[in-house]
Hints:
Blueprint: H1 9-14, E1 22-25, E2 29-33, E3 43-47, H2 59-80, E4 84-88, E5 104-109, H3 127-139
Antiparallel strand pairs: 1-2, 2-3, 3-5, 4-5
Amino acid sequence: MSDTNTFCVFCAIIRGQSPVAKVYESDTFLAFMDKYPITFGHTLVLPKYHYADLFKMTEAEVGNLYRMVHNIASAVYTATGAQGLNTGQNNGKAANQIVPHVHVHIIPRYDKDSRDGKWPSRKVTDYGELEEIANRIKKNLGN
């Protein structure tokens, strides 16, 4: 699961040591609701194997990750009724990568949150609300 001996919060989540509102799980990927969402429905998709950044992954692994992102993003978009959607993936501190484990943000966007091109502020969200939207997204996943 990890290529390092340092603690990784996402690896702990993958091992089931921290609760999350899961959207999707397979042998190789996990998708769950961001605990500090930028908007309603903000979802994270990550490989279960620990890669500190995208450059540690093979081209095929990156392709598999983004195929998963496409599937999850479609479900997020439909489940939230968003008017738009951002996907983002940060590598390194200079790019604002907070958790050094490859992950892709899927951020639904709404007409009401697009003021002057600025991002809405993150907020702590109740776990029950995260579970509710995770279940809505699951119902929209293509199999």
